[in-house]
Amino acid sequence: MKYLKELLSLVKRNIRDYGMYIALFVIMITFTVLTDGLFLSSRNISNLLDSAGYIAVLAVGVMLVIVIRHIDLSIGFLAGFLGAVAAILMVNYGMPIYVVIPIILFLGICAGSVTGFLVAKIGIPAFVATLAGWLIYRGAILLATEKTGTIIIDNETFNAIGNGYIPAIMEVAGLHFLSLILGGVLGILFYIYSAITNRHKKIKYNFEVVSKPIFVVQLAFMSVVIGYITWLLAGYNGFSWTVVIILAVVFIYHFITTKTVIGRHIYAVGSNPEAAHLTGISVSKITFLVFGSMGGMLSALSGILFTSRLQSATTTAGTLFELDAIAAAFVGGVSAHGGVGKVTGALIGAIVMATLTNGMNLMGVGIAPQYMIRGGVLALAVIFDVMTRRQRG
Amino acid sequence: MSDNILEMKQISKEFIGVKALSNVNFAVERGEIHCLVGENGAGKSTLMKVLSGVYPYGTYKGDIIVNGEILRFNKISDSVEVGIAIIYQELALFPHLSVYENIFVGNEIQYAGILEWNQTVSESEKMLKKVGLKVNPDTLIKDLGVGKQQLIEIAKALSKEVKLLILDEPTAALNENDSENLLELLKELKKQGITSIMISHKLKEVIAIADKATVLRDGETICTLEASKGEITEAAIIKNMVGREIEDIYPKRPNQEIGETILKLSNWTAFDPKLGRNVTKNVNLNVKRGEIVGISGLMGSGRTELALSMFGNARKYKITGDLELEGQPAKLQHPHEAIKAGIAYVTEDRKGNGLFLLQDIKNNISIGNLKEISSKGTVNINEEIVVADQYKDSLGIKNAQYSTISRKSEWW
Question: Which residue ranges does UniProt annotate as crossing the membrane (chain A) (predicted)?
Fold first, then answer.
């Protein structure tokens, strides 16, 4: 009884954080029921995550831009344009992929830095500066693909990024072996190890921690979740490279935002730029950094993922990506007032939006109601956010 | 018997966990100038916000009685309708609009939704005459001084046929002349039958102008003093405001050793490119080790600007003159350089530009010096809690939820 109470109060206190996970869970269960289990099949989940990849990566970037009270509309066409550049470098100039990818990421940082410079140093409103970028990159992608039209990429390594899977090594009972090892064993062990060391550190400092039984329940629950996802994916082709990349991006950016000084400074700038300035934080440096390394570089990565997935660079690549990413970030709980938002939230937001598309496609829902339902979910997510915030006063 | 235009009975108002007003009684007679005095945080502004409908009916307890009738204001326009107008400390004018547009904003002269500009201008001229202000109604607000802006606010109130005018520290930003002008105007309006409530910190003004003065302390009514009985004196007001005899208003000064000059400003002039004028001019200042140096002046006189210009030139003024720290010439280009040099700045507007309201207390305490609790750019959050706890104890920060911070579960 005592533990149940503790669990309930824990959930109640963190309802805002858990809300998205619960929503995602409910949506997934609903689709699973409506499609007679087809939705939760290994193949479909694997597909879903791969199709969400480029938006998830963009959403993480734009989420951070929104946290510091700006917006970036240029990321969509920037992603498309850099994807086209990657294709041209490989196809027309025969450059090896190991050179192309760093070049593209670097170009992304440069493009983002230009936006950052305009916003942070010159003081142009981000909406206008990035709208200009939106037009410029839209023109650039047309220019790049003008002569050839769609550029088909025949580099297998490059195409594997969006379509391939990590090697299996061997199969165990029809399951993808390396994925099982990575996710099922290493993933869970890493989670348990970090949770336990974290708890020990807190105990060493004499801080309150959740009671032992609840802690064990937490560990078991999370292990089951990780294990189940791994098992699902291992049942098809295992972890795709896209999933590996998403996990890496989320892990790195989650670490930066929650554990580092730079992360703290980002949230301080978003929460109150004036106060941040008087605290000795360089607001323009942070703005520069977020637009450059987060907005720009992640758009480049997103462009690589998308181009690789299509195995070609098209004239329309990147269209409306920015709005999908912004929607995902808001579903994931970022606040338009700045200072609030999580990397994990952006990921979940992107998965929620991809789940809706995927689930409704499976059910054969027409494209018109699909847009409306996704719009409704976006509105609902923000309403939930505003309401829970108000409750806390 | 007295003819009360307003009575507030047993007003209580609570903010989450904090009692702002408890059973406040407040009565204003028709045609008087009634001053509301009290220390910061005594509840004066809160009381006036209850009266004007900023806090709607239901969020407070007690009755508001206007002209003998219990009224329930759900929104600000409800109080405007019965002739109550409030002028806030921070003026609510639109700097880029003209005088006449500002006077009739929210109360536009219109026929079927079409604005009647000619009549607006001629009406606003009448209002300007009433407040004794000679300006062209076409003038933009931003081109007027604060004193004149204050008068525009009053003209705006008059255009709404105000019966009861509430002024929240109207003279805080005004110089001697403008203040006197304003007080004269209030007396003039009184003759025309307009009742005024004035919140003020300046006791001389209160003594000069008040028919009655109600003292609030810690959210409670202490007393109402009457001029006709000779009760409004500096001694009486202070005594009731602070709840002590006057002898110990200030704590005793300890004899402190004063050392050598630690900060020296000479011919310090700061030009604000945004405003296009100097915010400080030829300031000379000597601060010795161990001293407390007060910088006083009216609002807008450049106190804050002087502090900010010393604190790493936080507002990016163009500065001429010299700053010496501990005898060495110093050029501080950014607040972080000032912090490094050992200067700290506590802002006047803590909510506006001091604190990160969305973040917890621990983050607010540590943000200025995260380096101390980080290694290789990674913050040691446990160490952070320990440090925050130390400050919490040494500064007496009260917060019930604080201890729960460390408990927040980490599922990720």
Answer: 21-40, 52-68, 75-93, 99-119, 126-145, 165-193, 214-233, 239-256, 286-306, 371-388
Q: Does B355 touch chain A (CB under 8 A)?
A: yes
Domain range list for chain B: 4-248, 261-350, 355-407
pLDDT in tens, chain B (412 residues): 468 899 898 999 887 667 788 889 999 999 899 999 988 778 888 899 899 888 888 888 889 999 888 888 888 888 888 889 888 877 788 988 999 999 998 888 888 888 888 899 999 999 999 888 888 999 998 888 888 888 898 898 888 888 899 998 888 878 888 888 889 999 988 998 899 999 988 888 899 899 999 999 888 888 888 888 888 888 888 888 887 766 666 677 777 788 899 999 999 999 988 888 888 899 999 999 988 899 988 777 888 899 999 998 888 899 999 999 998 998 888 999 999 899 999 888 777 888 888 788 888 888 888 888 898 888 988 888 888 888 888 887 766 444 433 333 333 3
What distance in Å separates residue A269's CA from the closest CA in chain B?
Answer: 9
* Interface test mutation site (partner B, options A203, A264, A392, max chain B beta carbons within 10 A): A264
Just give the CATH number of A2-164+240-392: 1.10.3470
Q: Is A280 on the interface with B (CB under 8 A)?
A: yes
Check residue B302 and report its DSSP letter. Answer: S
Give the closest-approach CA distance of A116 to chain B in angstroms: 20
Beta pairing partners, B239: none
Chain B 3-32, residues with CB within 8 Å of chain A CB atoms: 16
Class of domain B4-248 as given by CATH: alpha beta
A339/B354 touch (CB, cutoff 8 Å), yes or no: no
All residues of chain B having their beta carbon less than 8 Å from the beta carbon of residue A280 are 312, 334-336, 338-340, 368
CATH topology of domain B261-350: Rossmann fold (3.40.50)
Same fold: B4-248 with B261-350: yes
> B312–A275: do the CB atoms touch at under 8 Å?
no
> Taking the domains of chain A in order of start, what are their residue ranges?
2-164+240-392
Cβ–Cβ under 8 Å, residues B165 and B195: yes
Q: Which two tokens stand for residue B204?
A: 């001389």
Determine contact: A316 vs chain B, CB below 8 A.
Answer: no
Q: Does B296 touch chain A (CB under 8 A)?
A: no
Residue A16 touches partner B, C-beta closer than 8 Å: no
